[in-house]
Amino acid sequence: MLRRHKESASASDSTFYQLRADCAHNVPDTKFKIKIGKTLSVRKWHAAFTHHGSLHIASVLNRIQSGGVHPAIRGEVWEFLLGCFDPESTFDDRDHIRQARRIQYARWKEQCKHMDPHVGSGKIITAPIITEDGVPINDPLVLLEATAADQQPGSTTTTSNADESSSSSSSSANHRLTDKHTIEWKLTLHQIGLDVLRTDRSMLFYEKKENLSKLWDILAVYAWIDKEVGYCQGMSDLCSPMIVLLNDEADAFWCFERLMRRLRGNFRCTQQSVGVENQLQHLASIIQVLDPKLHDHLERLGGGDYLFAFRMFMVLFRRELSFGDSLYLWEMMWALEYDPDMFSTYEESGPATDRSAQGYKPRVKSTRQFGKYERANMKSATNGVDGPVPISVFLVASVLKENSQKLLQEARGLDDIIRILNNVNGNLDAKKACAGALKLHAKYLRKMQGKKA
Amino acid sequence: MAHRVDNEYDYLFKIVLIGDSGVGKSNILSRFTRNEFCLESKSTIGVEFATRTLQVEGKTIKAQIWDTAGQERYRAITSAYYRGAVGALLVYDITKKLSFENINRWLSELRNHADSNIVIMMVGNKSDLNHLRSVQEEEGQALAEKEGLSFLETSALEALNVEKAFQTILSDIHQIISKKALAAQEAAGSGPPTQGTTINVADSSGNMKKGCCST
Fold first, then answer.
1. Which residues of B touch A154 (CB under 8 A)?
2. Cβ contacts (< 8 Å) between A25 and chain B: which residues?
3. ipTM of the complex model
4. pTM, rounded to two decimals
5. What CATH number does domain A273-350+365-452 carry, 1.10.8.100, 2.60.120.10, 3.40.50.720, 1.10.472.80?
6. Residues A264/A255, Cβ–Cβ less than 8 Å
7. Greatest CA separation found in chain A?
């Protein structure tokens, strides 16, 4: 199994996600504590498997909903929560799938490496390697810049230097590329590099160069296989925990790929809009229904587009909370949204597709195998064409509603809204926030059904 | 954009920070609003905001600064960025030639999407990295002159010229607005505006709220 930490069960999670000594003061405190009898423990987790390996998911979900996951088993548990595996599969089934996925990842990585030899080399690119019309950039000035990035404060990573680039340019030749996808992919590589060097750098984990290049490689491969989304700023924040939790690069990739099934819609951009605006609109209509006064107030202050919640949806509170607390919030949301058919629907639709908007199929499974939030949605069968509204929308809505009085009384401008929400979000308790989201969701469903009737 | 009348400040100016990814926009902002610089700074997701209230030419000005992600695809929410903006700080990195070459792109983006009266200042950041410089100060100066922009080199790390850059752009905006207000008064031909009179300063929306009750 993929266990990397052997600390005792009573440890606070700061033992797991260690910070650099010089950074400890400027990151949010972690509030998550491992609670005996509530948090899914190592022992409980192992006890939830049958002899052959099928997982009793209902008991696991209950535990996670009441106290999160012990950091020592987070990676393994997340693989199930995110739908990498069917809970009813056996140990053998999963070994088989894991091997096949690792081979698949290696194959994709090899393709990428063929297009750009920096992939898998341990190096990270931070300056463009190609122009928009597909002409390779290898003039000495740019190469010099790329090396220069190495000397900037805080940066510890090797970037491409003249030697390598000249050798790579000889293999890929100086001819102009014409394939649109290849050009687009190459154009994102330096952006990924710029962001990897700025992701979770307060953690000791990323002092190791190989972890930084893992992050770069995974994002580069993902950008290649998801041609519609590619790479978009924010994705490095979502991918980083996978690398911290799962030792094997391919396993981390697949967890990230599963997470992106839920979230890639947010990152999909057209000329006029960013996908997340869809969720902002959901948020607006929920607040409009449940707290019209607040909605009017926000609108008056210039916040009617709810852009102030943009980042909350894009990186799911990673910027507001400590590393450990955001993982705690994520797993709680996923447990509430859990759908045991996730695995099979994902497998059917193939990688880099959305979480499915195909509505509900008749299910033979017991409802106990579903998360609470998912159950409420099934009962009311209120899903739009885009599929269910994610719980994160109700979570943000409940944060707004809880602070309605404060916002109405104290906010006199957009900046006040942001200041108030930043304070609140920094102290967000995952469990309470999720409970609030569920309550608001139930209320919203009642209202909507009342309207229909 | 609507602003309620408030005694805390005379004007509210919305400024956008734009420029290539990694040139230091967020650190310029944190230096200006909180006097902080973060070596472990993170990428900006979409749009983030901060404000600072300061004195400019005897007026209390509240600067509402929108920090934007450098990645091009986030420009899809452009209309929201530029709505009501009266100033733009266009930032490049003096050690990254390409970020300077891209200034023209950013200018055309501003011309296409922002109010035509927007005040633009060009900023060459990271002047502390002089040994890695790839854009000479004169080049920056020349381009700024050609495009009719004000220009400064800054170092958010060393807190050099950041304050000055904002002071400059804010006072430029203030001067333009004062002139317009005066012209508006003269055009109305009836002396100073009375309570409840709305003065439209920019073509887009009311950013000026002194002595008026813009909605």
1. 39-40
2. none
3. 0.84
4. 0.88
5. 1.10.472.80
6. no
7. 71
